[in-house]
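Hi V.,

You were right to ask for the full record rather than a summary. Here it is.
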Amino acid sequence: MNIKLPKMVKVRQHFRCEQLQDIETHLFEELKREEISKTVLPGSKVALCVGSRGINNIVEITRCIGDFLKELGAGPFVVPSMGSHGGATAEGQKAVLKGLGITEESVKMPIHSSMEVVQIGIFSGRIPVFMDRIAYEADAVIPIARIKPHTGFRGKVESGLCKMMAIGLGKHEGSSRLHHEGYENFARIIPGIAKIFIEKADISFGVAILENAYDGTAFIRAIPAADITEEEPKLLGKSIEMLPRIQIPEIDVLVIEQIGKDISGTGMDLNVIDRASQGRLPGYSTASIDKIVVLDLSAGARGNACGIGVADFTTKSAFKKIDLEKTYTNTLTSTNTLGGKIPIIMEDKREAIIAAIKCCHGIDENNARIVKIPDTMHLDLLEASENLKVIIRDTPGMEVL
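Predicted structure:
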């Protein structure tokens, strides 16, 4: 373990940045559009569907939608819509929302959580379609979701409103059933099941959120239910354009300070690190990375380390935070066993990085190209080994601080 670790320099990456300056005003204007506001009647009970991802301003967005519905005379409430997350328990899913800042006090409305589902249809003649019972019994249902590329498949729709309906609102039973079909079939299944939700359930409209490369709210759009499957593909293309990426072309060791379900469904965005169980995902370019070290779990992960198996090394301190029951519940639901495997565990950060360097082939071990990022969601500030300074200075949109 006597490899010399390089000195690191702080680096800033500059990305295209669209950002809403007044979320509440913009959102109210969206909701006041006639084709949106007319879908909710006075006295109706309205389920706002919120998932497990760490979406910036999600508390404000959810509260504003609730306030608008109250002005219409409706009674809004929140339903956790996150498949099997939170250990596939009602209380666990409420705890996930709390970790995101969503409580009855913060959004000024009740939160009703249950894992009970009802079957609302069947897709392709053989796949049962399940929906959260509480949401199904509401007079109106409004999914709220961020539109972004998925970490396991490519299609016209990936992560967003359609997936929240098909998988998030399907709770554990529905999510498990769909994942049994495999990611390779999601591009066909998810839009098809979303259409069943729109036909059979009382979906009023969806609220689509796009974030910029700095994790800021760039775009919010209220979409009538009948238009969701047509509009979401357009927003997905816009989302891909705004995604952050590591602009250094080749990295020997990438060090990720923390991973978690609040950051990405796989703990770390596989688009950013260029790793997926199905091989390289097209449509998104980022650095070529040899070895990956994960140092810690985020507080929002609440012990769910699903996805950590994508990394090569981790630390004892990170391993001790893993809740195997939550991690394995999520892993078995997804059917992707790679995500539930445990990387090689080293004593501390230094030993983990040195071990990763030792396993890189054909490099000068005392001159490794190392990059450290906070997580895969925040890539504007990072650290890089000094031997990358020339590349950084020659790369548009990057600067050494």
